[in-house]
Amino acid sequence: MANEGKKLQREAMDEEVEIKMTPMIDIIFQLLIFFMLACRFKTQEGELKAFLPKNRGMNTAGTPAITLQEVRVKLLWVEKGSYRETSNKKGRVLLKVRDIKFPYVTDDRGNLVPNYKKLYKYVCSARDNFRPTRSYKSLPVIIDARKLIPFEHVVFALNECVRAGIKEITFAAPEIDY
User: Does pTM surpass 0.70?
Assistant: First the structure.
């Protein structure tokens, strides 16, 4: 018996242990494909995906390019019955360009809203009187909407500017409290 045990032990030592590599390679390739498809590469920090105007900012002399012909449409939130700005939620929208305060009209719901048709006429008049400059080929319009203004009024002002054929429309940055 001892002879048989040693014989079996020798035979076991003589046999080479084989690992089947095909299934392991298949699993490795599947994991590789999974990680390639599931991986999200880190985007570059500080990258801003926006199309900024190329004709704005610093010109060759180092001073910002400005135009006195631009139209700044201000949408202010004022107290009812006055033109004083307020943070009270019970205010209303005031439409203003330069020192011109546009009158109110009644809308379909019976609310007093600024007369955006008069804004259209004003912008058309400014567009017709615009003299192109090196920086601006068409009339620039800036829509400056304050904090409590309902978004629909911003859209109304934007629509009237687009209807007047204005292509240079920008939005003013919100005011920063000091």
Answer: no
